Amino acid sequence: MINIPSFRTGQPVSTQMVEDPQITKLYQALQQIDNRPNIITLSHFRQFEPLFRKNHGLTDQQIVELSERYGKTIDFYKETQIIHSGQKPTVVLTLPPLFTPVRTLSSTNENEVIVAVNQKMFGHPVPKYSSDAFNNMMNALKREQIPNKPVIDAYHQRYITLVDEFFATYQAAGAIPAVTADDQPDTSAVPQGTEWDFDS
């Protein structure tokens, strides 16, 4: 759908909705891409294993650098499927998403005023003004999630299921599958027989 402004002399600007098959097709293709999980090969994922272990042996700086690299590799709002290799795309493990997607504010006059006031009052020398404006926006975001509760509940249940599967797969030390020559493994200093864990 495209908004095409309709101009008339002396009349307020209105919009007319026009269906464009090419734009609709593009939107559907982008939506399919957006709905796909993160996919990463086992060999590529090995470098990130220390982030999932309590006894990782990394310095604080190494954790920051590895976390930044991980964040550039995957989308935290999607689950991550670890596959054996490009030649053998069998899913070894699925990791849950880290962030819960929330609905953004609806485009209403009231919400536009709330956002504008928050932007204007941000950093105001009177703390009450800035905190009240921020609280109003947070409350508006909370209200926006009420009709989205079934989606969030389903998302939460999926997270619990994936964490349970994670522990079931890596309950015993050394349960991680071996990397074959097909995987073209990354050079990683992660020891074999790694014990996996989630820090909550």
Quick overview of this protein structure:
By secondary structure, the protein is an alpha+beta fold. The chain has helices spanning 21-35, 42-45, 60-73, 109-121, 127-145, 149-169, and strands at 2-6, 14-18, 38-41, 80-83, 91-95. It has one domain (15-183).
What does this structure look like?
The chain is of the alpha+beta class. The protein has one domain (15-183). The protein is 43% helix and 12% strand. The protein has six helices and five strands. The strands form two sheets. A three-stranded mixed beta sheet has the order 3-4-5. Strands 1-2 form a two-stranded antiparallel sheet. Helix 4 packs antiparallel against helix 5 (127-145). The longest helix has 21 residues, at 149-169. The chain is extended, with a radius of gyration of 23 Å. The protein starts with a strand and ends in a 31-residue tail after the last helix.
Based on CA inertia axes, which overall geometry fits?
Answer: extended
Task: Write down the domain tally.
Answer: 1
Order of strands across the main sheet: 3-4-5
Number of strands: 5
> What is the percent of helical residues?
40-55%
Furnish the topology, listing elements before pairings:
Elements: E1 2-6, E2 14-18, H1 21-35, E3 38-41, H2 42-45, H3 60-73, E4 80-83, E5 91-95, H4 109-121, H5 127-145, H6 149-169
Parallel strand pairs: 3-4
Antiparallel strand pairs: 1-2, 4-5
Helix pairs in contact: 4-5
Which descriptors would you attach to this protein?
alpha+beta, two-stranded antiparallel sheet, 200 residues, 6 helices, three-stranded mixed sheet, disordered N terminus
